[in-house]
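Supplementary material to the annual report.
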Amino acid sequence: MIPNLRWRRWRYEIRDDEVDLQRGIFWISRTLVPLARIQHVDTQSGPLQRRFDLATVVFYTAAGPNHIPELSAPVAAGVRDRIAALAREQDEL
Amino acid sequence: MSSESLETGAPAGIPTRRLHPAGMLIGALRTIRRSLSAFVFPGVAIIVSQGFTIRTIILILFGALVVAVGAAIWGFLSWRATTYEVSSGAFRLRQGVLQKNERTIPLGHVQSVDTVQGPIQRLFGVVEVRIETAGGGTDEPDASLAALDRAAASALRRAVEGSGRAPAAADEGGPTVLRRLSTAQLLLAGATSGQIGVALSLLAVFSQVFDNVFSETLARRLLDTLAPRSLTAVLLLVLLFGLVAWLLAIAGTVLTQAGFTLSRDGDFLYIKRGLLERREATIPLARIQAVRIVEGVLRQPFGFATLRVESAGYGADAGVSTILFPLLPRSEVQRLLREAAPGFAAQPALESLPNRALRRYVFRAVVPVVLVAGAAALLSVVSDPAVWGLLALLSLPAAALYGWLCYRDAGWALEDDRLVVRSRRLARITAIAPRPRLQSRGVVRSPFQRRVRLATFRAEVASGGGGTALEVADLDAGAAQILVGDLGPKPRLG
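Predicted assembly:
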């Protein structure tokens, strides 16, 4: 029940200049990270995640990591590449 | 040799050099200090087992001699093996007597060049130079040169920092002093430092040792003679404890902050401080992420504040947030900031919180007190109901007052692309960060906040190896969303 809700409450959006993260059931938090601030992006998956073909996207700013958890592996790879490409684009501008 | 002449356009390098000869002695002393613990134990064991006879004294002296000679030889050898140079855009340090070690740091990666002068180094008029890189963050500096004379140290500093400096700055005449800490302010800083807690815990440890060394009966007899009535004795002891802790806190501040001088040379700030150990630190302006004006509980009533900066990738040794100036009148903070770090000077009128936030603040301050009191009642720490009632009567209004103070002091503003956020956590802290320095920002809304349309605003800036947050609780939810939007990346023109 609670995990289900938590999952349903997780939202992320990758716009041209920012990543928008929204999460939480009771304590709803929303974080915006400008793509120009992102230094690098990883995907990570633990043994349990691999079992279900899931992965977490982690992107780092100078102030530390931000996570987008439990995406299906191909989606995670897509998100990672998209963030990386957009961040590079921001750097070039 | 011909390759060097080709590089005349590049900033001047430094040919391979050794440390100042005092480095031998300093190295030897460090070796002794490191090996001391290994020799103290057998030494004490000998004394304990054999007693103080001529034989044991000779044996110990002999042992000490061996250590001293060994350390001296080792000091000489490692001095001979240590060389450094700056050439073709990198700093190189070769070290090691048996195991050779060569470290190369590209000048572009150098974060800061700091100098430290301990008592022994002072004796020889030399300084220790520490070089930190952006990736540092460990306790050890990335490269440390134990002894350089003044000229060599400033030549090294110029060669290393010169790479990142605009050529126009080269003809500027040395750093200009922005502000010095006077002796009166130094003492005031110590007296109001709030490090009394640290000093108290230190004293507590010390008193435990004291208790172990002197038997308890002795201490009790001492107390009995001092004050016949137990309550007076306890009060006296507490007072004495507090006084000693206070003096210790003052002494600590004097030791570390004496002669604090802030100066600026182009894009670099220089900090000099310390009584016995003179420290010189460099802060490149470009690395500063945020400025905090901290008004301690004891300082705010007198109108004094401390200035701190958060800088990115600074060694843990220097502290994640560095003191830019230990004590100055609040009215002069902005002037100093304009001179030292103009990008961070901002004194807009702050938006205060909506009235309905006051209840949240008082609630938040009172809850922990109630919980602690409840736990104390359950465990019946205080059995006497009269004392209990008195405590509740005193602590609850105090907590509520604190909540009200936090509410009154909280505020925020966005002016000239600079975010200013003020909040109180015992000390009143005003944080200033330019919008481009924010790594992320967002809002958090708890169930209680949602009911009354409030939100906690939170922005992160880089600091040290990780980040640090600028936070204000209980903004109007709509205003918080607008603030988050305004702080976003501006659409680029063209």
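The two ends of chain B are 49 Å apart (CA to CA).
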